Amino acid sequence: MATAPIEPPQRLVSSLSGDQDGREWLTALPTLVQHQLDAWDLTLERVHAPGGRSSLLALVHQQDGTPAALKFPVPGRASAHEAAALEIWDGSGAVRLLRSDDKTGALLLERLQAGVSLRSLPEAKALLEAAGTVRRLWVAPSTPHPFETLAGRTTQATEALRTAEELTPTAAPLVDEARELRRTLPTTSDEEFLLHGAFRQGKVLAGDRSPWLVIGPSPVVGERAYDLAALVLDRFEDLMAGSGASAATRRRVTKLADSLDVDRDRLRDWTLYRAVNTAVRELATGDRQRGELLLEFAAWL
Predict the structure, then answer these.
(1) Which of 73, 104, 146, 182: CA 20 to 30 A from 80?
(2) Distance from chain centroid for Cα 273
(3) How far apart are CA 257 and CA 225, in angstroms?
(4) Angle, CA 122 vertex, CA 117 and CA 126 arms, to 5°
(5) Where are the domains of the chain?
């Protein structure tokens, strides 16, 4: 039974403020959470706050007293097949899935240390640990599998890139290159690995069973360079603040590619594409400073 009020954190509420379906889900969420607590005989400790923008996480205890985390992803978001990916990894490099409910989308996960991520480490150490963790996730998916492919996932960026020059005309050459990379990259690789899809240092948390475990996948099937590109971009602001930032950026690509046996050129290409694509999103939502920084980072590649 619940021992504390079930109230969605403000960060989650704000992220869904412009989404009618999301607001309806938020209204029903306290009832859904209470139902799941009762169905799985869980005791609520507290709702984790500030939490994320795409899910509610409640810290709970199982019937035998073992701590766990009850997660409710926002319906229809990229985490739709999170449970399927976690089942495949079965705790190897990732948080362990204890139970799932297809109807409500609820996931019961092992409890990790939510306040301790790789971002708490110095950059060089964090990159090393992140690379060692993400490589454990790169396994062959079953056939058939429920996951989208990189070709499908990147299709949604086509229209945004097409209109990007209206947001930042001076970046037209970069946008053109990103548009071409979006067209060619997904069709010119034979790799078919299950990828995290949204990998970054903040999604690698300290655990008891293993020093570092990944959470929050947005699983997709494709080549490893796509996941690794997100790691090149991680904490890019710190990299840009240092001396010789453009050379350091290229060294980061080379170091990560070589350490994980990934083609350097393809890692560079996926990083440029993901940097420009993210920059366009930031510009479209009004964060011009971050968008322009990402474009500058992309230009160094």
Answers:
(1) 182
(2) 16
(3) 8
(4) 55
(5) 10-111, 117-300
CB-based contacts of 34: which residues, under 8 Å, 6+ apart?
Answer: 2, 6
149 class by beta-carbon count within 10 Å (0-12 exposed, 13-18 middle, 19+ buried): middle
One-letter amino acid of 222: G
CATH class, 10-111 region: alpha beta
Q: pTM for the whole thing?
A: 0.91
Distances (CA, A) of 170 to 45, 175, 278, 280: 52, 10, 17, 13
Can you tell me which residue has the tokens 């990007």?
Answer: 164
Q: Which residues contact 262 (CB under 8 A, 6 or more apart)?
A: 224, 225, 228, 256
**Superfamily for the 117-300 domain:** Aminoglycoside phosphotransferase (APH), C-terminal lobe (3.90.1200.10)
Q: pLDDT tens for residues 150-183?
A: 999 888 777 677 776 666 777 888 888 998 999 9
Task: Render pLDDT for 221-230 as a digit per residue (tens, 0 to 9).
Answer: 999 999 999 9
Q: In the beta sheet, which residues pair with residue 57?
A: 71
Q: Counting beta carbons within 10 angstroms of the beta carbon of residue 56, is it exposed (0 to 12), middle (13 to 18) or buried (19 or more)? A: buried
How far is residue 296's CA from residue 230's CA, in Å, rounded to a whole number?
A: 16
